[in-house]
Amino acid sequence: MRKVIKSILMLTLTVSLLTACGTKVDNSDNAMVGSSTSKKNVTIGIGQFAEHGSLDNCREGFLAGLAEEGYVEGVNLTVFTENAMADGSNANQIASNFIAKKVDLIAAIATPMAQSAYGAARDSDIPVIFTAVTDPVEAQLANADRTPTGNITGTSDKLPVELQLEMIRKILPDAKNIGIMYSTSEANSISAIEEYKNIAAEYGFTIIESGISTIADVPLAADNLLGKVDCINNLTDNTVVSALPVILNKAASKNIPVFGSEVEQVKIGSLAAMGLDYYDLGIKTGKMAAMVLDGEMKASENNFEI
Question: Which segments of the chain have a pLDDT < 50?
Fold first, then answer.
């Protein structure tokens, strides 16, 4: 069994690395589609909730998307970038600072940051463009019909839950219990957990969940969870992903495989993943932001995209 898992891991890493290398877009001046000389000078604030590969890729892709549409940092684009380090209070402060600076647009990366930005900007005319938000409706950033709740729109990173379960069943045909750790304060994680629980039985699985409040809870939660499950399945939960190396080390010591939700998690040790490319998601969101800055669309009038 160990040899099989090792072979799968090596193959997954190879494919994931090649895929990641092949999807990124050159962010040089030669790659721009729009002309920066015809664009107005703008200032934006980028608030990122946590520091890990997925969200970093989102931020880089966002700036690349803006550049392709003619908004180039250092030319006609001023960017204030802040990271909340997975702390809700920091996210609130960052959003308030952007409002005080009177930026032209706030880009919010991940659900807690988007919620903070939306709350801070609600009484202003500053649009908020979010990305890496799994369930905008559950996070109260959009209505049930996907229309905006205010001057806010963006892109979702909704997980392909059924494909993930199908993949786990193929790789681990005898597995019964899947462990999932999540942050109780992240609406997207709570929504994802419910979706997993609703369909897990169709694939012969039982979901064993473990909620945490802060990143400091991860080591103990991992120890408890690993004694009850055949594998760990990771969400895009920002607090948990920030501590993924800890989970991977503990799981490896017990020979418990860990599945990721996107390619960056595979690069650092997860066995395999079914998910999206966050760099591409960032590009898509950056282009959306450019349309808002150009006046071609209003955040308050456009549904979020998946």
Answer: 1-32
Residue 45's domain comprises 32-157+278-301
H or E element in which residue 168 lies: helix 161-171
Is residue 189 a part of any domain in this protein?
yes
Percent of the chain at pLDDT exceeding 90: 67
Structure tokens at 130: 């979010």
pLDDT in tens, 186-207: 877 888 899 999 999 999 999 9
Cα–Cα dist 95/145, whole Å: 27
CA neighbours closer than 13 Å in the CB half-sphere of residue 175: 30
pLDDT of residue 247: 95
* Predicted local distance difference test score (pLDDT) of residue 86: 84
Q: CA–CA separation, 188 vs 195, rounded Å?
A: 11
Sheet holding 152-156, edge to edge: 77-83, 42-48, 105-109, 128-133, 152-156
Of 195, 223, 197, the C-alpha closest to 209 is: 197
- Indicate whether 148 and 166 sit together in one domain: no
- 19-22 long-range CB contacts below 8 Å, 24 or more apart? 19/263, 19/277, 20/263, 20/267, 20/277, 20/279
